[in-house]
Design goal:
Domain AAA+ ATPase: 43-233
CATH architecture of the largest domain: 3-Layer(aba) Sandwich
Number of strands: 14
InterPro entries: AAA+_ATPase (IPR003593), ATPase_Atu1862_pred (IPR014588), HerA-like (IPR008571), HerA_central (IPR002789), P-loop_NTPase (IPR027417)
Organism: Tanticharoenia sakaeratensis NBRC 103193
Distance between the termini: 49 Å
Protein name: AAA+ ATPase domain-containing protein
Structural class: alpha/beta
Region (Disordered): 1-24, 327-348
Low-confidence stretches: 1-20, 314-318, 328-338
Largest sheet: 11 strands, mixed
Radius of gyration: 31 Å
CATH topology of the largest domain: Rossmann fold
Strand content: 5-15%
């Protein structure tokens, strides 16, 4: 096994002369001796790192990664994009989860083990729910790799409480279960498959106990909450009265215990690193010499606001006035004084007028990214201004008309064949109906497949990667067939209708 590559900093602790090549230095103990990490033992017994924000957890992980980068294969789950610079320095492959489907990430997790490639999974540009799904898919692929590829891998998971939470948060139950299952497999069943989990968390109380309990090595940093201090002391075998010592640890100081670190709790100051984090640090920057008056026009520049075009006031019809007089101005007592006025039959509203209002709202700037419920209320308001009444259509009907209009299909082309395409769309989840109809319109017209930007607008997102993933979802629902060519062009066929886009 190759020896550890020394760091460039003159202050970096060097391994002891008698240390085996598989041991790496994590930092200095209070007696100035190196704290050596027995790498084979770490691979077999796993590691848990805990510390409040700013305690130096990411620095510790970076130190461990740099010291072992040329000794063992590595996989980093990076929710904030902090380790992309490290990856470039050591030649790791960076996978941006926003650009790939869950199926691709699962396959990547399996293939990186087959080819023994070190990988950083960057989740920086992915929404919380998709972060969990992407992590579950990638770890699942690593876990399900064939036995022939069970080479040792050091799996670093930063902010592990996000992927193995104790309780629900802003993510869906399905995504949380997938991620928690993958993290449990990593920590509980990963050892026999060569997977060594190194998980870091801000709070032990937020991390699922069945995930934390499988670690045999611990590095506990600065902690202020009583519940976390007590739990940290229990894990290190310390008396509870000693738990308050965790409040006094400085940034970059940890208490270490475990078969790969030390048989008794020891303090360690983490050594220096070669690479820098992408995150902003606590360093102070001087302000530019300027005054508030000089910045007034910049700071207080008027924001762009929506201004409705002027409309002539609608004149209520006589029958509407009669309804208002009968239902709105007569109280319960007045209704007994004279004969009740029969409400006239509601006048059917021309669907073309409603479609015109929906098109008007859909064409407004940023309408593609506004909630459907907001657009619906806007249409109802415009309908009242036009004198069409309060309830011209319900929300489900509005969603469907909006999806059809956003597909770009002309009104004169909405025939029986198009109704068949709409029937397929209405069987899909609401958020992908517009995407499907957009593809269906392009396929029916034999036009090129819509590009990523058009798909993103139809899906209501600014993320092109997230929009592309909807193609894989629609294909999994067996409503489209997707063919991607080596040139980067793609073709979509609509299942059951015989429509097909030109390749793009």
């Amino acid at each position: 096994m190759t020896s550890v590559v020394p760091l460039h900093s003159p202050h970096t602790p060097e391994p002891a002369p008698h240390a085996p090549s598989s041991a790496v230095s994590l930092g200095r103990k209070r007696d100035s001796a190196d704290l050596l990490v027995d790498l084979p033992e770490l691979l077999a017994t796993r590691l848990l790192v805990q510390g409040n924000s700013g305690s130096g957890k990411s620095h510790l992980l970076r130190r461990l990664l740099e010291q072992t980068a040329r000794l063992v294969q590595q996989a980093v789950i990076d929710p904030e994009g902090d380790f992309t610079g490290f990856a470039a320095h050591f030649g790791h492959l960076v996978i941006d989860a926003a650009d790939h489907t869950e199926a691709t990430l699962r396959s990547a997790g399996e293939r990186m083990r087959a080819h023994r490639a070190s990988v950083v999974l960057n989740l920086e540009n992915v929404e919380p729910d998709q972060q969990l799904r992407a992590t579950a898919a990638f770890l699942g692929g690593m876990f399900d790799a064939p036995r022939a590829h069970w080479y040792p891998v050091l799996v670093i998971v930063d902010e592990a409480q996000l992927f193995a939470p104790v309780a629900g948060g802003d993510t869906t139950d399905e995504a949380r279960k997938l991620s928690l299952g993958a993290m449990t497999n990593l920590m509980c069943r990963g050892r026999k498959r060569g997977l060594a989990g190194v998980i870091a968390t801000q709070r032990l109380a937020k991390l699922a106990k069945n995930v934390a309990a499988e670690a045999s090595n611990f590095l506990m940093g600065r902690t202020f909450l009583d519940i976390d201090m007590v739990r940290a002391a229990d894990l290190l075998g310390m008396e509870r009265r000693q738990a308050e010592a965790f409040r006094d640890l400085r940034r970059g100081q940890f208490v270490a215990l475990g078969p790969a670190l030390s048989r008794t709790p020891v303090h360690v100051a983490i050594g220096t690193v070669e690479t820098a984090s992408n995150a902003t640090g606590p360093s102070l920057l001087p302000l530019a010499p300027t005054t508030g008056e000089e910045l007034r026009d910049v700071i207080l520049e008027p924001a762009a606001t929506f201004s409705a075009s002027p409309r002539p006031r609608a004149v209520p019809a006589p029958d509407l006035l009669a309804q208002l007089a009968a239902a709105g101005t007569r109280g319960p007592e007045a209704q007994d004084d004279g004969p009740a006025v029969d409400a006239p039959e509601p006048t059917p509203v021309d669907p073309a007028r409603i479609d015109a209002l929906i098109r008007l709202v859909a064409e407004e700037p940023d309408a593609d990214f506004r909630p459907v419920a907001t657009l619906y209320q806007d249409v109802l308001l415009r309908a009242r201004i036009e004198g069409l009444g309060r309830s011209v259509l319900d929300l489900p009907a509005f969603r469907r008309r909006l999806a059809t209009i956003r597909s770009g299909i002309p009104a004169e082309s909405e025939d029986d064949d198009w109704r068949a395409a709409e029937a397929i769309a209405w069987s899909l989840p609401e958020d992908v109906q517009t995407v499907f109809l957009l593809l269906a319109h392009a396929a029916r017209s034999e036009a090129p497949c819509p590009d990523d930007a058009a798909l993103a607008r139809a899906y209501g997102t600014h993320s092109l990667g997230r929009a592309r993933r909807q193609l894989a979802f629609l294909e999994s629902r067996n409503v489209i067939v997707l063919r991607e060519e080596a040139s980067g062009h793609r073709m979509v066929a609509i299942v059951g209708l015989g429509w097909q886009t030109a390749s793009r």
